[in-house]
Specification:
26% helix; elongated; alpha+beta; Alpha-macroglobulin_TED; A-macroglobulin_rcpt-bd_sf; 738 residues; 34% strand; 5 domains
């Protein structure tokens, strides 16, 4: 079979009688690569003209069609089916409209409500002969805008102009309209000559409001422990180009810095499962501490913890030796007289904080004297434990030093011992790389500052702590959401222990907000340590650190007085006070407030938030982007080279751009050169390039455009020779534009 296509019909010729024939049309042009799909599958995804099939007796059928005005290109193919010959498909034929008259709409990218808008319509005469009568009309059937300069009529559904065109001439006419609604308005224009519709154009005009609402918030953290903190003149960034009286400003005081780190008493209570006496003593001690901090009247749990503590202490005391050391009979790793004594004394110190036994205190002091005798000349402990690595020596020294520092009432007895051990750790800090050892030593240094002997070099200790914090932050692990943070340690040490000691350092440094993701991660771990065959000084270190964090937040007695002063350019216009027993912690500030001063006195860790909103008139906004276009001298009749430079014009220091698109419409007959588009895609800050309208329009999207000019080159290639050209256009906008 075969087919012949003319301007309004297609003739189909078949080889057999009694065949059923039809045609299928595809809007736009068809890629040659799709032909195989058409031949093998007979897939027609276009519109069929007409929808019926014909019986033919003369081996010929004619189909008449009238494509809608907005379709300028089609691919038409014919098919035939007979019971004898089966299905046959003819070679597809390209059809392109040869328009005598064309019209194009040029409008702004967006306009404001009630703002006059100029609609430019370009009329192109593609014939080499004069057109004596042309009628151009702009339609308004939905009454979405009104025509200006229309003899007072504001409800017209269309406006018409008349004219004539010389051969191959381009003329421009304009309509002045005023939008009546927000959102998108569809503009349609028709051109008639001699009573027939010969051209049609359609585009979208985006209408933005006269004023838009802007919102923002300012958050500041604070932490006071029986002290005072003051912040002067926090500036609210409200510009002058706002609707007077539209400002809404509130001040709210929050008693927690972040919700992800919230802890309750029940979360910190241990289950008190039976295990070795050292771990049981720690469990019971922490349970009694939480019951007291949370003021929980759980008498049964308290009695159980006290009984377990007494039994555990009795058992631990039975492991004591005459020289003050302890020997744990159970098999555990690592095992040594020094290590066993550290574990035992740690449990006894924790228990005696609740028991207050003089006998127990004397036993602890004897053990400390024994440990003192196990200190080497360079300051490290457990010198008699045989061959050990340097990291093992640092770890043991850190744990022994923690024990000495926890005996706050007896520091004077061991000043030289503590100073020597601390100096050893200070000199060894540069050798630490694993998060566990870094965090453990950092915790020891922080405690050294709190339990001062009077001989410490505080500036050096602070310097080492800052170094350790920097090393830890460089090795942190963070979830994709940013809500959890932890550290991966060596295989011999659980990640939970390393992360717990890191949290201890940050809590003692009062970095409560920064520590919140760490707390959130530990809450998802087995921080109430399960029964383990290995006995270490790190028993319940995770639970211990959560309790320390809760002391600064959840269990902190929140007693405070806050003073908030709102100011405008003339001075203080309102003064408010908030206390811990105030019913509402939210204040509504005067609309003219531009700065806020805040002071708080007492004990609390929290944050305050200033929320503000206002209506800003967009009619007073100035141009957002500056566009500079230069045509290079290398341009010729086939290629035109341009340099385009874009610069952002911010209204204030706080305004930024995001995903800026530069939309280039080439002059009539020109398309974007492929090599030029490839070069644009190679630029670092180009997010995407998109070709539209048969490559006559190029959109380039940048991540951001700043106040410094962003320049790039683009080349247009002349595909068709046109006697008259429509000018090209460049539009620049970002995500905040409508």
């Amino acid at each position: 079979m075969s087919s012949v296509l003319d301007e309004r019909s297609i003739k189909v010729f078949t080889n057999g009688d009694a065949s059923r024939v039809g045609i299928a049309a595809y809007e736009g042009s068809l890629d040659a690569a799709q032909l195989n799909s058409i031949y093998s599958r007979a897939m027609f995804n276009g519109t069929v003209y007409p929808e019926f099939l014909l019986h033919t007796s003369n081996h010929q059928a004619t189909f008449h069609f009238n494509p809608p005005p907005h379709i300028n290109q089609m691919v038409v193919t014919a098919f035939v089916f007979s019971s004898n010959g089966g299905l046959g498909i003819a070679e597809p034929i390209q059809w392109q409209r040869q328009q005598d008259i064309e019209i194009y709409l040029h409008i702004p990218y967006s306009a404001r409500t009630l703002e006059p808008v100029t609609v430019d319509i370009y009329i192109v005469n593609n014939r080499a002969q004069k057109v004596d009568f042309v009628l151009v009309e702009l339609l308004n059937k939905a009454n979405e805008f009104s025509f200006l300069n229309n003899s007072g009529r504001t409800d017209a559904t269309k406006k018409t102009v008349y004219g004539r065109l010389q051969p191959n001439e381009v003329q421009r006419t304009e309509f002045l309209i005023r939008p009546k609604k927000l959102g998108s308005i569809t503009l349609k224009a028709n051109a008639y000559t001699e009573g027939s519709v010969i051209a049609r154009a359609e585009t979208i005009l985006r209408i933005v409001p006269e004023s838009v609402q802007r919102t923002g918030s300012i958050v500041r953290l604070f932490n006071v422990d029986n002290s005072m903190q003051q912040v002067e003149d926090v500036k609210i960034p409200i510009p002058r180009t706002i609707d007077t009286g539209s400002e809404k400003i509130t001040f709210s005081l929050n008693r927690e810095q972040t919700q992800i780190a919230s802890l309750t008493g029940s979360m910190l209570l241990d289950k008190l499962v039976q295990t070795d006496p050292f771990t049981m003593a720690m469990k019971a001690s922490l349970t009694l501490e939480v019951l007291s901090l949370a003021r929980l009247g759980w008498n049964e749990r308290k009695a159980l913890a006290e009984r377990m503590m007494n039994e555990s202490v009795t058992k631990v005391m039975s492991y004591g030796n005459a020289d003050g050391s302890f020997t744990i009979p159970d098999r555990h790793q690592p095992s040594s007289a020094c290590w066993d004594t550290v574990i035992a004394v740690q449990a006894l110190i924790s228990s005696n904080e609740h028991l207050g036994s003089d006998q127990l205190e004397a036993t602890i002091l004897n053990a400390l004297e024994w440990l003192k005798s196990r200190q080497a000349a360079d300051g490290h402990f457990c010198k008699d434990d045989g061959e050990q690595t340097e990291l093992e020596g640092i770890e043991k020294t850190a744990h022994v030093l923690l024990i000495f520092q926890h005996m706050a009432n007896h520091l004077w007895r061991f000043v030289s011992v503590i100073n020597s051990a601390r100096n050893y750790l200070l000199s060894s800090t540069s050798k630490l790389h694993e998060p566990y050892h870094l965090a453990l030593v950092g915790h020891v240094f922080q405690l050294s500052l709190q339990r001062a002997t009077g001989k410490e070099n505080r500036s050096m200790i602070n310097e080492k702590i800052n170094h350790i914090l920097a090393e830890l932050l460089a090795r942190k692990q963070r979830s994709s959401s940013g809500l959890k943070m932890w550290w991966n340690s060596a295989p011999s040490t659980p990640d939970l222990d390393a992360t717990a000691y890191a949290l201890m350092v940050m809590t003692s440094k009062q970095f409560l907000f920064d520590a919140a993701p760490i707390v959130n991660w530990i809450k998802g771990q087995p921080y109430r340590r399960a029964v383990s065959s290995t006995i270490t000084p790190n028993s319940h270190v995770a639970l211990r650190t959560l309790i320390d964090y809760a002391k600064q937040t959840t269990f902190q007695e929140k007693r405070y007085e806050a003073v908030i002063m709102a100011k405008d350019k003339s001075g203080v216009i309102s003064r408010h006070e908030l206390q811990h027993d105030s019913g509402s912690q939210v204040l509504v500030l005067p609309a003219t407030t531009r700065t806020v001063s805040f002071s708080i006195n007492g004990t609390i860790s929290g944050a305050y938030t200033i929320n503000y909103s206002y209506m800003e008139s967009v009619t007073s906004q100035v141009q957002k982007f500056d566009i500079d276009v230069l045509r290079y001298g290398t341009s010729n009749e086939d290629y035109t080279d341009w340099r385009v430079c874009i610069r952002f014009l911010p209204k204030g220091f706080y305004e930024k751009t995001h995903m800026v698109t530069c939309e280039i419409a080439f002059p009539t007959g020109y398309i974007a050169l492929d090599d030029s588009v490839d070069e644009l895609n190679q630029l670092d800050d180009v997010v995407a390039t998109v070709l539209k309208n048969d490559e006559t329009q190029l959109s380039i999207t940048f991540e951001e455009i700043g106040v410094q000019q962003k320049c790039f080159n683009v080349t247009g290639f002349r595909r068709n020779v046109e006697t008259r050209q429509l000018p090209g256009t460049i539009k620049v906008f970002d995500l905040s534009d409508s």
